[in-house]
Amino acid sequence: MIGQICARIVAFFLRKRVVFWGIFLLVLTFLGVGVSKLNINEDLYAIFPQGEEFRKFNEIVQKNKLNKQVVFSIKNQGDEELTFEQLEGLKVDLEKRFSQELSEIEIVKSVDQAALIGFLQKSSIRTLEPKDYARLEEKLKGDSIRKSLKRSADLLHGPNAFFLSSVVAQDPLGLFYEQLKQLNPSSDSGNYSLKDGVVYSRDEQYAFFFGTIEINQKDTKKLAEFSKRIEAFKQEKAKQKGLKFDYFGTFQVAVENAKQVKFDAFLTSMISISGILLLLILYYRSVLAPIYFLFPAFFGILSGAGLVGYLHPEISAISLATSSVLLGIVLDYSFHFFTHLKHLGDVVKTVKEIGSPMLLGSFTTIAALASLLFTNSVVLQNFGLIALCTLSGSVVFTLLFLPVLVKQFRMEIRDKSKPTKGFKLSKPLVRASFLLITLLSLVFLYKSSGMTFDSDMNHLSFHTKELKEKEKFYTGINPNTDKKLFVFSSAPTMEAARIQNDAVYQSLVADKEQYGISELVSLSPYLPSKNSLEKSEANWLNFWKKHSNIEREVQQISPEYGLNSAGFKPFFQWIEKPSVDKQEGIDLLNQLGLNKFVSEEKDLYSYATSITVKKDKQDLVKEELSKIEGVFILDISEMAKSMLNVVKKDFDYLFLFSSLLVFVSLLVIYGRIELTLFAAFPMVLGWIWILGISSMFDIPFNFINIIVATFIFGLGDDFSIFTTDGLIQQSRTGVNSIKSSQSGIILSGISTIIGTGVLIFAKHPAIHSIGAISVVGIGSIMLITLFLQPRIFNFFVLNRAKAGRGPITFFYFIYSILLFLYFFVGSFVLNIFLIFILIPLPIKRIKKQNVLNYLISRLAKSTIYAGFHVKKIGVDAHKLDYKNPSIIIANHSSFLDILVVLMLHPKTVIMVKKWVYNSPVFSPFIRYGGYLFAEEGADGNLDDVRKRIDEGYSIVIFPEGTRSSDGMIKRFHKGAFYLSMEMGIPIQPLLILGTHEVNPKNDFIINQGQILYKPLDRITALENETYGQFCKRATQLMRDGMQNFRKEHATSTFFTRKVMENYLLKGPILEWYIRVKWRMERTNFDFYNQLIGTKKSVVDVGCGYGYLSLFLNYYDPSRRIVGMDYDEDKIAVANNCIKLSDKINFENADIREWEIPAADVYFFNDVIHYLKPEEQIQLLIDVNRKMDNEGIIVIRDGIIELQDRLKNTKLTEILSTKWFKFNKTTNDLTFLSAKQIEQFAHQNGFSFELIEHSTKTSNVLMILKK
């Protein structure tokens, strides 16, 4: 239906070229304007979910000036004055050259060292714990004071006396030197040391200075330009003798990533396009072929970029680069179009054939990819939007625009390759392949649970070796062993935030070595909380109350070492009043550059602590800090991992949602669960293979290559749908069009592997990671759709059609397995009951046999009646007299015949064949139950039969010896009749009808239908009749009885399933059309069948899909039936239906030109009104000439005499021919005149009978008999 609509649009464009070019150029212009609106965003963080957690993370990344800091370095020449001059010169040059890009360039850290030391000394009392006060006690005992003052005197007479004088004045006893070391910022400066205001490396080989970059971290274009200019600046300075200049900033990571993404996208695109072009040229041996094939790709790219330009102008660079994987799907459309065009040779026919599967495949693919729009990641949203726009544009172009362009410019792709014979795998090889695939699938299913998801962002970011070395040198952090953490103490009030910050600091300082902390930068020493100050001051004053004579002791001892105690006044004041100047702490904070760690906003105060820990200790630190209420630990990589895991869960949900959407879409389009499962199964199995192979070869999924999952899912369903459609067409018409689809799939798959596999050559890890997954995925899907899928369809549909059976449907497949499983389990239970319960019972064997045979009969009956979809009908069942045992002979065409005869009465045993008698499932209970072994022959069984008869059992024998393959009664063996005559036992004929249709020979499916049985009158041998003659008489009796039985009960209802199975799994429209027509017409068909009677030749003119002709053939296979229709598609379907004999044939012809064959009966159902009036009468004249003197003409059509109902008839015909195109016509409709037909009948020796068929339309049945 969809293909027909597309074909009509293409036909319209071909007729109206001006309209086509107007629309086409308008579309191109519209898309071109959209492309100009695009703005590419190269922000790596775009892959994160845009939730509240990301908002906080992004705010830290974008606003934190530490992230914007640039570190510059020069080689220290050993001359401090020269080094300082070089630093000054560089500062001036940088400020001049990069005035807009750089700010706050500092070459000297102008920190008042004396003030800093003094403040830290005063602040150190806050770190004192009971153990520290105990240490102070020791320092104030005996000679400890004397030793401390001597050390202070030595310091004041040393080379650093000027600097240390203030330190000694504040603490002459050296009570707080240990605390001072902990508080000294230089001890926690990572890779740096401070000397005379200049920052040096620890070994003083390099001098550093700092600046702040003013460019927005998301503006990679400006960052790239800055990177280029500053690199040029570096090269320029490298020419100066004695100056080795370098720099490092986090902006370099963003720039390198953006640069590599662009380069990789260009490189992989060029390689993939070149590879695909080479493939097309070699395959089609035409230089122009690639141009034709790339038209949909070019339009798809234009459509994707253009529509995205209108819908979402800002697009992620990573999503744009990874969208190159869509090229495989877009080219898939080209492959299918041109391979089918080469096969059909006409663009309109090509569009009609590929329209439905292509639109269905593209819809499910787009649905799967478009589900990414509902994620919170910008990259995934962008990729989903690009896929939606690109694929939609490509499929519209391929179906509506490309055919017109092909016709307009006479694009032809001729197959210059020599025809090759296809190869066919031998059955053993096919079975071995299936076994191997099954085993591999089980292994992959098991391994799939071990699939890993790599959520480490570092693995998705591009770092050159040089950049990694720079990062390690400038930060002093080894990324392999160290971890940088930021701890934020936040609260609504300043005091609460500072209390938290103090708690964090105290916790970390107390166990610094245990936690493996190599760097600790905290604001706590400079911004202490009021609570901690008050508490520490109180403890301090209490301590010195116990040592009130300390001032006197120091004054007495000081002169001994040449010290003037008056210089220790700050120390004595500190003892009495240990206050800290808060403003001084803030000033020092600003001087040290630690103000970046402070965030004070309305109702929210936040203080940051920076720590560097060993990676193996980070969990311990986090666990300890998490105990402090209100503390937030910012671990950028962990946060990224957490957010990616959130997106992964979100993605899993959307993947499930899209899978269900695709499944429902397939179910709606195909209308059958069987075709839906068949089309979806390659995607499911392919996904298992992808996960299993990836797990086995340690190919982890990550946030970027998981996009390939949706791509493979989409391309996989495209492959599967085209394969399914090709197989449906083969099942429908018998034409093997699957080769065209498979050619397209092979070319598309190889081109996709080229297009995505080349991503392995990309250096950017995010893009590189796609390559391996895509190759594994597409390879798996190709193998499944090209090898496994057709053979499964053959097993369930095509091979059965060749054997004269209908396709296996889902319900009957499952239910048949359950029924057989029920029967076999019941048999097993019977054996258990027999062996462990019945046999040990101390009662007579005959009684035990009776119990066992009763249970066997109940098992058989419960199995038959468990098939609720099968109607059971017994006719004249009273003729079965089990009180007087007999030999029951029954026709045999199904396994179910055995269950039917067993369920009728417990006093029944069967003569069974070798496989049943020796079966491990049936053998125990049938042997104990007294069943007879057919292989022993009639003579060998004579005594056993007599014994069974004496015990009151009737013996069931199937005289045909084996099941009939066509349901007809075959030649009887004579054994049953020999036994009858030898023992004087009557024969009880039993007719079984319908079991062959429900479960034919060598089939395991229990189909819908009817099972009927009818016992005939008992017969005995006539006088002087041999048992051979007796056998022949019984055979003919049963054949005649079966013929009459069929006439009575084998109506259209009986054959409904057999007729309908010809149209199953051939498309929902066809199936439901036949279902509706069959329900409307089957009572008429019964009437037609009775009307035909014993006549043997029938012509069905306007037979359509052939369901009437098939019914007549099924009822009586000896009839010679010819069906004819003007619609070649319907005849193709009819000719591919199951026929019970070669006497039925379907022909495609125009009735006006057709040589009408001679026949006894002619049917004209709703066909004559398509002819002109003069052609209608001429047709009847021609028919009259061909038929014999007892022929019948049946005409069903609308008549003009019923004018009030004729308009309804016309409306249905208009809908059928003009709108839905169910019927084809070349003339205007001309309905019949009943009077004219009656006049013709009387003139040509026919009787005339008119029967009205409807109360709403003018359709009537006119029967003309000679």
Automatic annotation (TrEMBL):
<dbReference type="InterPro" id="IPR029063">
    <property type="entry name" value="SAM-dependent_MTases_sf"/>
</dbReference>
<keyword id="KW-0012">Acyltransferase</keyword>
<feature type="domain" description="Phospholipid/glycerol acyltransferase">
    <location>
        <begin position="886"/>
        <end position="995"/>
    </location>
</feature>
<feature type="transmembrane region" description="Helical">
    <location>
        <begin position="18"/>
        <end position="35"/>
    </location>
</feature>
<feature type="transmembrane region" description="Helical">
    <location>
        <begin position="291"/>
        <end position="311"/>
    </location>
</feature>
<dbReference type="InterPro" id="IPR041698">
    <property type="entry name" value="Methyltransf_25"/>
</dbReference>
<feature type="transmembrane region" description="Helical">
    <location>
        <begin position="703"/>
        <end position="722"/>
    </location>
</feature>
<dbReference type="Pfam" id="PF01553">
    <property type="entry name" value="Acyltransferase"/>
</dbReference>
<dbReference type="Pfam" id="PF13649">
    <property type="entry name" value="Methyltransf_25"/>
</dbReference>
<dbReference type="InterPro" id="IPR050545">
    <property type="entry name" value="Mycobact_MmpL"/>
</dbReference>
<feature type="transmembrane region" description="Helical">
    <location>
        <begin position="265"/>
        <end position="284"/>
    </location>
</feature>
<feature type="transmembrane region" description="Helical">
    <location>
        <begin position="767"/>
        <end position="788"/>
    </location>
</feature>
<feature type="transmembrane region" description="Helical">
    <location>
        <begin position="743"/>
        <end position="761"/>
    </location>
</feature>
<keyword id="KW-0472">Membrane</keyword>
<keyword id="KW-0808">Transferase</keyword>
<keyword id="KW-1133">Transmembrane helix</keyword>
<keyword id="KW-1003">Cell membrane</keyword>
<dbReference type="GO" id="GO:0005886">
    <property type="term" value="C:plasma membrane"/>
</dbReference>
<feature type="transmembrane region" description="Helical">
    <location>
        <begin position="653"/>
        <end position="670"/>
    </location>
</feature>
<dbReference type="Pfam" id="PF03176">
    <property type="entry name" value="MMPL"/>
</dbReference>
<feature type="transmembrane region" description="Helical">
    <location>
        <begin position="359"/>
        <end position="379"/>
    </location>
</feature>
<protein>
    <submittedName>
        <fullName>Phospholipid/glycerol acyltransferase</fullName>
    </submittedName>
</protein>
<dbReference type="InterPro" id="IPR004869">
    <property type="entry name" value="MMPL_dom"/>
</dbReference>
<keyword id="KW-0812">Transmembrane</keyword>
<feature type="transmembrane region" description="Helical">
    <location>
        <begin position="677"/>
        <end position="697"/>
    </location>
</feature>
<dbReference type="GO" id="GO:0016746">
    <property type="term" value="F:acyltransferase activity"/>
</dbReference>
<feature type="transmembrane region" description="Helical">
    <location>
        <begin position="809"/>
        <end position="839"/>
    </location>
</feature>
<feature type="transmembrane region" description="Helical">
    <location>
        <begin position="385"/>
        <end position="407"/>
    </location>
</feature>
<feature type="transmembrane region" description="Helical">
    <location>
        <begin position="428"/>
        <end position="446"/>
    </location>
</feature>
<feature type="transmembrane region" description="Helical">
    <location>
        <begin position="317"/>
        <end position="338"/>
    </location>
</feature>
<dbReference type="InterPro" id="IPR002123">
    <property type="entry name" value="Plipid/glycerol_acylTrfase"/>
</dbReference>
